[in-house]
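Support request from a user on the community tier.

User writes: "When I paste my structure tokens into the form, the page sometimes reloads and wipes my input. The last time it worked, I copied everything first. Here is what I submitted, just in case something in the input itself triggers the reload:"
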């Protein structure tokens, strides 16, 4: 429906006009006819699907969309036809009603939870400017969220949640700024800066009644980072003030660091961007479910075959009688019923009713219940809970839990997924000189050198509250200490025309000094970091009343008397009326200057003014106990740079609209720069720039930082022509390369002095681009690119983004499990390679293939060459010099060892590889490589890579990421996993599963994935078996019942069998049963391979279940038939014994398939049989029968008094289950699979543990001192003695051992658990 409406909007209006509601008559409601805003939705939300009236019809309508439900409804209706009825009409309805009822209860409970959540939100309150009925005046009134409408003026205080999408009109901040936390919207806990609409003259201060202008803005849409519009103002309403996303406060965000704000609602309720982005957990169809649907088709075919066969045999049986009147036991109603052909046609539908359970009635609803149980235990697994962020595992897609056990490809982002995304400044290069900030302990630096070089920095790092672990470079420190306005003045450098070299060494040194100072100034101000220094308060209470102290009231009264000519005012004015008074009443809080506590000793030493160590929170905040400064950054990179600059003394102190204040050490005071423009970062430019005005020289300075490729490409031409400058660029590039090899994230810094005429021309274009209603972002980007050129290079930074804990171990386990791990990142190649090494994605013994091409032809040549070389390697391995070897060149490879490869592709080459003509070759090459890294990849390319694997290889894929740039691949993959990290919740909102750490993926896949897959595989096969064994019993009886459709079972037991007597044990097993412990699955990851290889549920699984049910049903029926032949027992006694045997066989069969027993399984299994047994006794004693005209009164009681009944049941049970028991024993001894071998290993470990405990106990009794632990030799000997089992289990402690300076011992990576079990006894 959403797409339908979107299409209509294309030919309809492109924008909406919102009129302030207070400009309309007080008695005209916003939703009343004649109101200009009446077509807009209110702020009331309703996420429920049903109401009390619509629940039953709507829920039934949804359930009838399932084919299985429609089929059983058809069977129920068929049973109401007297001529074809097989059971009592009431009894036939019970199973269908039960299934529909269970589903309806589940849907009702979920909808009730949504209703309670909606009610809580709708009844929240805020202050809305409207006519107050008690005093007849217009002021702010306490109003519930559901009663807010588009056009209302709203007043919000600090820490208050925004109730609707609001256009920001007024802020308590003098610069018109407002800070919001968007964690409820996108998960980002850092603050965003929003700006009051500018360009409207209120003549004095903002007052709600003065804002009477119409707002023209976009139609409601889900783009949370886009908003365009304008305000029509002026006498003739022809003037337009442009609006952008910085003027809009979104519903669900929280006001921070601002006393209060006032704004007008433009979107309410379901038209807000937050509600338009809401979506329920995704419904996907798993791979196993598709297999089950295939087997259901087999069941349909089997049903039709059985019905046709039975109908034909009924006609043949009836036709065998020459005299139709002597047909026994079948009193037909009229003579035409004796027609064999007519009888065969009618009885066909009777058999449809009898054999209806060939298609398992409770299969789909039972699978849903099993998956809900699995999801519950996954969500509350404490091993998947991250205490630091207080977040647990979240399953957002409820229908693909078993897919977690069949993953073959993992596509992972790097930053924030493999790494912490908590940046730490580690090194920098300024104008060609590298300044490494060495760690505290460096083996390559002797003590004397460390003392001389890092003594100042060490002193500062220990006491600084800006960057606790940063080691200061003395040279940089001395230069920054002299930073002042005068030193930041631009000086032209003289260049010798003859040689093109710098003419004066002193000038070059001065230029270098200036570059250092510009570099640190850029780090401090080229960002959007917010600085706060005091708490925030609002004088208006929640009812809209302003409370002042007596002194403040007196002062306000005098002020109002002067302003209005009347000092008496019976009513308190709105907060906007006294905004200036409030501002004046508050005492300004001046943060202490850094120089106030800086002391110099011995000519060069100093102590940090910030004495207390700082801590960076997830929100990216830094606190200083002395200066009371808090930094709020939109990205961890910006926070790291600002903290580093502050540690050196160039500290950002304040940011306001059009101003930025910095503490300059050389000035000894704070200096204020005019902030003219901020050119925000975008994924195309990959740069972020600010334009500032020098407070002394009035120079207009453009400062930029961004990706090295995007900054170095826009340098002044002298960096290509002049040798000295070329050398600076080359040195900088070398340093960047070294940073990347260390796994550091790199950013380049540059500066440009703008001429005033050029700036004025550019400013005019920029204002026009900002005011554009169409393609505003694209136009702003083009204008930004026009000014971002001819830069002076300052330098670059290296920022460390550490690997998350457990990442190398997790990737190693996943690769051992047979999963192909790819890393798709936007980082540069060298950084990606280094991270691949440290995360153990690349092995030391692999050969690395780099694909770096400039065009399609070169890419194809590379692919052909590498494919050819790999084919040669299969015949004769290449020497390590052929291509770069990852490990030591001294490493040796066994002649019989298969050579392994790692592939690295850059973004430009990847674009060519994804073309139709080359994708097949690229795919072949990736299949020959064990690891793949795609660097400089765009979000679209990430999604295309995932799609390439899924479409061509038909393998289950998993994509994991933490940012908005990962949404494409997360949504494309079969399973999407979002990491709730530093980059917000966009990835989580698009994902099927949400985790907090990459290492949680290990247990999620290897343990929960394996459990869910094996449980549902066995559960599905058992459900087919359970249904077929019952149907086959009825089928055998038809041979001796004249193919008439009569049954030997009481119909009520037949209907209850699948929904009551035998339904719960397999469901409990599907939720709780464990074939192996979590520890074993993590220790032996090769067991996971059974999932991707489809070993647990194959095409033959259905036919094995069918054959098993066929055999057991034949034994059950014919053994009972032989026992009761020529006896005085009737059909009801025969049927009762068969029913008891049937239920026990199903329950014991389920018990045989159970691996681990806990008390719920025992309890449910026992209770299931007791429910049948007691129910049968009760209804046979006091109830009546639905199978008229017969009545099985007291049958159960009579049957139980016969010893033959118990003997037959026991004999039947043993005979039916004996073959399965024999097959299970043979399977475990002759041909054990991975699971069986691991189970035997677990038992042997338990035996060893018990043996040690017994030995320790004997030693304690004998008075001997028990040893604390066994020696490794003893443990190895014990393991070797136990049938050789542990020698063949892959052990993480004995995996391939490598030595960097010697030979390398290799071992097969597959590590299958084989051999060593031939002599194992059961």
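"...and here is what came back when it finally went through:"
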């Amino acid at each position: 429906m959403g797409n339908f409406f979107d299409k209509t909007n294309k030919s309809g209006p492109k924008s909406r006009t919102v009129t302030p509601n207070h400009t309309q008559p007080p008695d005209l409601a916003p939703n009343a006819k004649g109101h200009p805003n009446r077509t807009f939705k209110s702020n009331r939300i309703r996420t429920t699907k049903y109401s009390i009236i619509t629940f039953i019809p709507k829920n039934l309508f949804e359930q009838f969309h399932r084919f299985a439900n429609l089929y059983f409804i058809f069977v129920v209706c068929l049973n109401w036809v007297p001529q074809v009825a097989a059971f009592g009409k009431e009894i036939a309805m019970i199973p269908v009603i039960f299934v529909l009822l269970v589903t309806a209860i589940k849907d009702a409970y979920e909808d009730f939870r949504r209703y309670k959540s909606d009610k809580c939100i709708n009844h929240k309150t805020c202050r809305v400017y409207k006519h107050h009925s008690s005093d007849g005046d217009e002021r702010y009134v306490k109003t519930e969220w559901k009663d807010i409408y588009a056009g209302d003026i709203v007043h919000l205080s600090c820490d208050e949640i925004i109730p609707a999408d609001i256009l920001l009109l007024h802020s308590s901040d003098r610069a018109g700024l407002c800070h919001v936390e968007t964690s409820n919207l996108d998960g980002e806990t850092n603050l965003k800066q929003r700006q009051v609409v500018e360009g409207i003259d209120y003549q004095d201060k903002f007052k709600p009644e003065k804002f009477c202008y119409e707002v023209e803005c976009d139609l409601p849409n889900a783009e949370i980072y886009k908003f365009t519009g304008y305000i029509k103002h002026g006498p003739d309403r022809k003037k337009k003030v442009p609006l952008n996303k910085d003027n809009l406060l979104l519903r669900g965000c929280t006001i921070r660091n601002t006393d209060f704000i006032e704004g007008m609602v433009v979107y309410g309720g379901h038209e807000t961007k937050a509600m338009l982005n809401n979506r329920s957990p995704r419904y996907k169809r798993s791979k196993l479910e598709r297999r089950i649907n295939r087997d259901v088709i087999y069941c349909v075919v089997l049903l039709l075959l059985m019905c046709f066969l039975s109908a034909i045999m009924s006609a043949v049986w009836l036709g065998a009688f020459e005299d139709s009147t002597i047909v026994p036991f079948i009193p037909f109603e009229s003579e035409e019923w004796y027609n064999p052909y007519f009888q065969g046609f009618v009885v066909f539908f009777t058999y449809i009713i009898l054999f209806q359970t060939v298609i398992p009635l409770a299969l789909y609803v039972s699978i849903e219940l099993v998956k809900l149980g699995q999801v519950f235990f996954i969500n509350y697994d404490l091993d998947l809970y991250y205490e630091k962020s207080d977040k647990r595992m979240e399953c957002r897609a409820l229908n693909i839990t078993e897919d977690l056990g069949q993953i073959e490809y993992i596509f992972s982002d790097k930053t924030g997924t493999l790494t912490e995304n908590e940046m730490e400044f580690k090194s920098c290069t300024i104008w060609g000189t590298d300044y490494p900030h060495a760690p505290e302990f460096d083996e390559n630096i002797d003590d004397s050198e460390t003392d001389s070089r890092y003594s100042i920095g060490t002193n500062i790092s220990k006491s600084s509250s800006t960057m606790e672990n940063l080691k200061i470079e003395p040279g940089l420190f001395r230069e920054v200490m002299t930073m002042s306005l005068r030193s930041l003045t631009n000086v032209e450098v003289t260049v010798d025309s003859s040689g093109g070299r710098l003419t004066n060494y002193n000038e070059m040194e001065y230029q270098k000094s200036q570059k250092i100072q510009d570099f640190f100034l850029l780090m401090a101000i080229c960002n959007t970091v917010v600085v706060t220094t005091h708490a925030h308060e609002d004088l208006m209470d929640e009812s809209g009343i302003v409370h002042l102290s007596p002194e403040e009231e007196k002062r306000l009264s005098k002020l109002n008397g002067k302003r209005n000519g009347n000092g008496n005012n019976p009513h308190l004015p709105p907060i906007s009326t006294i905004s200036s008074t409030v501002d004046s009443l508050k005492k300004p809080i001046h943060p202490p200057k850094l120089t106030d506590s800086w002391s110099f000793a011995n000519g060069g030493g100093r102590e940090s003014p910030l004495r207390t160590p700082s801590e960076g929170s997830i929100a990216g905040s830094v606190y200083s106990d002395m200066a009371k400064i808090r930094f709020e950054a939109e990205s961890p990179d910006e926070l790291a740079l600002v903290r580093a600059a502050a540690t050196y003394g160039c500290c950002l102190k304040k940011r306001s609209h059009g101003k930025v204040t910095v503490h300059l050490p050389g000035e000894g005071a704070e200096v204020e720069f005019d902030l003219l423009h901020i050119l925000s970062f975008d994924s195309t430019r990959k740069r972020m720039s600010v334009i500032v005005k020098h407070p002394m020289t009035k120079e207009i300075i453009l400062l930029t930082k961004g990706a090295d490729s995007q900054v170095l490409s826009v340098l002044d031409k002298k960096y290509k022509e002049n040798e000295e400058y070329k050398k600076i660029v080359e040195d900088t590039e070398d340093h960047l390369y070294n940073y990347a090899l260390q796994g550091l994230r790199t950013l380049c810094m540059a500066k440009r002095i703008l001429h005033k005429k050029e700036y004025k021309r550019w400013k005019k274009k920029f204002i026009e681009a900002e005011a554009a209603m169409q393609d505003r972002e694209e136009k702003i980007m083009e204008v930004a690119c026009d000014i971002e050129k001819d830069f002076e290079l300052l330098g670059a930074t290296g920022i460390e983004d550490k690997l998350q804990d457990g990442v190398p171990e997790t990737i190693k386990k996943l690769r051992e499990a047979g999963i192909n791990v790819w890393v798709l990142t936007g980082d540069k190649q060298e950084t990606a390679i280094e991270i691949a090494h440290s995360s153990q994605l690349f092995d030391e013994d692999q050969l690395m293939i780099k694909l770096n091409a400039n065009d399609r032809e070169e890419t194809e040549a590379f692919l052909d060459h590498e494919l050819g070389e790999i084919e040669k390697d299969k015949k004769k391995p290449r020497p390590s010099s052929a291509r770069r070897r990852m490990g030591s060149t001294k490493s040796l490879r066994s002649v019989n060892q298969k050579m392994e490869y790692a592939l690295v592709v850059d973004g430009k080459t990847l674009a060519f590889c994804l073309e139709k003509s080359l994708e097949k070759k690229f795919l072949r090459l990736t299949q020959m490589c064990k690891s793949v890294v795609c660097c400089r990849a765009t979000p679209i390319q990430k999604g295309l890579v995932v799609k390439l694997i899924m479409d061509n290889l038909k393998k289950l894929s998993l994509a994991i990421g933490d940012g908005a740039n990962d949404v494409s691949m997360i949504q494309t993959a079969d399973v999407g996993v979002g990491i709730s990290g530093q980059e917000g919740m966009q990835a989580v909102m698009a994902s099927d599963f949400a985790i907090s750490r990459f290492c949680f993926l290990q247990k999620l896949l290897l343990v929960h994935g394996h459990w869910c897959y094996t449980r549902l595989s066995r559960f599905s096969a058992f459900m087919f078996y359970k249904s077929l064994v019952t149907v086959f019993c009825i089928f055998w009886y038809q041979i001796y019942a004249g193919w008439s459709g009569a049954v030997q079972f009481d119909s009520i037991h037949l209907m209850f069998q699948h929904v009551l007597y035998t339904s719960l044990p397999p469901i409990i097993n599907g939720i709780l049963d464990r074939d192996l412990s979590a520890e074993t699955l993590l220790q032996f990851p090769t067991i996971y391979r059974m999932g991707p290889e489809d070993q647990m549920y194959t095409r033959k699984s259905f036919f094995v279940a069918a054959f098993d049910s066929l055999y057991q049903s034949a034994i059950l029926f014919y053994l009972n038939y032989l026992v009761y032949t020529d006896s005085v027992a009737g059909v009801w006694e025969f049927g009762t014994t068969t029913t008891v045997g049937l239920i026990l066989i199903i329950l014991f069969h389920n018990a045989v398939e159970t691996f681990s027993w806990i008390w719920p399984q025992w309890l449910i299994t026992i209770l299931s049989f007791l429910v049948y047994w007691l129910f049968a006794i009760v209804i046979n004693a006091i109830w009546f029968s639905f199978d008229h005209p017969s009545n099985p009164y007291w049958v159960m009681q009579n049957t139980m008094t016969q010893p033959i009944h118990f003997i037959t049941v026991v004999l039947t049970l043993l005979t039916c289950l004996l073959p399965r028991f024999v097959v299970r024993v043979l399977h475990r001894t002759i041909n054990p699979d991975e699971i069986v071998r691991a189970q035997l290993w677990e038992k042997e470990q338990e035996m060893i543990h018990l043996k040690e405990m017994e030995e320790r106990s004997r030693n304690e009794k004998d008075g001997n001192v028990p040893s604390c632990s066994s020696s490794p030799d003893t443990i190895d000997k014990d393991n070797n003695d136990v049938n050789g089992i542990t020698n063949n289990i892959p052990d993480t402690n004995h995996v391939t051992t490598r030595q960097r300076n010697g030979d390398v011992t290799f071992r097969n990576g597959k590590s299958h658990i084989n051999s060593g079990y031939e002599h194992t006894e059961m």
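Agent notes: The reload is a front-end session timeout and is unrelated to the input. The mean pLDDT is 78. The chain has six domains: 15-33+148-277, 55-120, 292-359, 360-376+1006-1229, 394-415+804-889+897-995, 420-491+507-532+598-674+705-726+736-753+793-799. Escalated to web team.
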